[in-house]
């Protein structure tokens, strides 16, 4: 897998390269600014971008917005020195498939890249706990399976697997309106405000219909 690193600290870039030196992943380049990253991707390709949220010219959120919805855009793994819950949520909404703190890089990076390469999401326990503590009611974390209908459980599992809405509708043979109804029912049952809350809850509990 081809990996590109965007971070304004050469020490971090060198550290990531050292971690991946003996792995199956190939570091194909690096950038210290968002502009350099965008310019590189205009003429090159990679599978995953390891993206710092704090770049000198534009933040990581702005970079994600620049690529959100674009065909053939790389997958993004966010690497940050903070656990800001609003930023974490925004990166999820903008399509990033993972979020790892810089202090967790050495032990979590390879697993994160492995999961993201498969199109799956990866968030460390620390990151998930931050989101859960801000977003979810404690009494909604008990038994997801018993609280959902079979169709709701199917939809939740597909959401947690990063499937697009149109693909979920095709797989379940339902309309987008019916899908939105399922989402609305689940958010009420599980006491979360938005679809992102359902995804985080499913990730937290490794939800699987079985």
Report a brief summary of the structure.
The chain is of the alpha/beta class. It has helices at 10-20, 34-43, 60-67, 85-93, 105-117, 125-135, 144-147, 150-160, 165-172, 176-189, 195-204; strands at residues 2-6, 26-31, 48-52, 75-80, 98-101, 122-123. Strand 1 (2-6), helix 1 (10-20) and strand 2 (26-31) form a beta-alpha-beta unit.
Low-pLDDT residue intervals, each spanning 5 or more residues: 136-143
Q: What is the count of structural domains? A: 2
Give me the count of strands. Answer: 6
Number of helical segments? 11
The side-by-side strand order for the widest beta sheet comes to 2-1-3-4-5-6
Specify Rg, calculated over alpha carbons. Answer: 18 Å
Characterize the overall form. Answer: globular
CATH architecture of the largest domain: 3-Layer(aba) Sandwich
The percent range for strand residues is 5-15%
Biggest β-sheet, characterized?
6 strands, parallel
Helix content: 40-55%
Determine the mean pLDDT: 85
Name of the CATH first level of the largest domain: Alpha Beta
Q: Distance between the terminal alpha carbons, to the nearest Å?
A: 30 Å
Alpha-beta classification: alpha/beta
Predict the CATH topology of the largest domain. Answer: Rossmann fold
Helix-strand sequence = EHEHEHEHEHEHHHHHH
The oligomeric state is: single chain
